[in-house]
Amino acid sequence: MAAAARDHLPAAGLDEADEAVRGTCEDASVCKRFAVSVGYWKDPYIQYFVRQAKERKAPEINRGYYARVHGVSYLLKAFLKKTECNCQIVNLGAGMDTLFWRLKDENLLPRKYFEVDFPMIVARKIHNIKSKPPLSKPIMESHSGESLLIDSHSLDSSRYSIIGGDLRFSSDLEEKLKKHNLDIQLPTLLIAECVLVYMTPQQSANLLKWAASTFPVAMFINYEQVNMTDRFGQIMIENLQRRQCNLAGVEVCKSLDSQRERLLLNGWETAHAIDMMKVYSFLPQADVKRIEGLEFLDEKELFEQLMQHYCICWASKDSSNLGLASITF
């Protein structure tokens, strides 16, 4: 998957690796839709992007997605509050994410919301948006100015933009974003959920460095694996490898320290990392109690192990002194 791997991998091998990564987008969306259907959180839009799961998902998986969605949302809303929504969001490897529509419903839209993913995923998402009024209407409602630009691999309105691109090539990425009116002077939140782990450490470092050097005021939220050198982590890696899915960047997922270090070494001023069990304990406990009543969880130990192998990391740089460094759970 990587520049280094490119020299050794035939093009077909590279395509297969990318195809396996694209498959993780479908898996995540199906899991989210299932959790929503059971009542873990509300998302009226996910149904327009992905089919309902053929079989039930395990309660520990549903709780894991609940913690992921709410953990990322908590930090994102803290950023929106600090910037008073006078900012932009760049969702990297966004897949079938519905965040734009949910923020619009809550009246929390930033000045502009960008999504970037593989062109094939973007084409599918655009097709869904064009063919489903509950998705297209909010984009039209928030659009002002000239006519909306749309083709098979990109869509650009005044508040929402979706771009097909490869995150492994940040110069190409910047050019595409600027074509869609990215404003590097605006406070910018970048989100990556289970994205960096599929890039080599060098490629993710380049992306983080690009973001830190491009935006004077910015925050980066990264959700992905951690503590991957123990036995449980090894089993997770083997399970993914069986599906031809290689975690090219897994060496950075050794520990919370290695996650923090990567951010600090690549130009970010502050960096934090906590595992998802901790995040789960920080979420509003009344709602946690409600979701724990939805399904019986037999495998408490498995749930805890799973949550200790995922983390949320966030970093900031803040030349305008908006107080981004103080954002925490």
Uncertain runs with pLDDT below 50, 5 residues or more? 1-12
Strand content: 15-25%
Q: Helicity, in percent?
A: 40-55%
Identify the overall geometry: globular
Secondary-structure element order, as H and E? HHHEHEHHEEEHEHEHHEHHHE
Q: Quick check: average pLDDT?
A: 93
Largest sheet: 9 strands, mixed
N- to C-terminal distance:
34 Å
Radius of gyration (CA) equals 19 Å
Query: How many β-strands, per DSSP?
Result: 9
Determine the number of helices (DSSP H or I, runs of at least 4 residues).
13
Q: Strand order within the widest sheet?
A: 3-4-5-2-1-6-7-9-8
**Secondary-structure class:** alpha/beta
Catalytic activity: [phosphatase 2A protein]-C-terminal L-leucine + S-adenosyl-L-methionine = [phosphatase 2A protein]-C-terminal L-leucine methyl ester + S-adenosyl-L-homocysteine
GO molecular function: methyltransferase activity
Keywords: Methyltransferase, S-adenosyl-L-methionine, Transferase
Pfam family, one: LCM
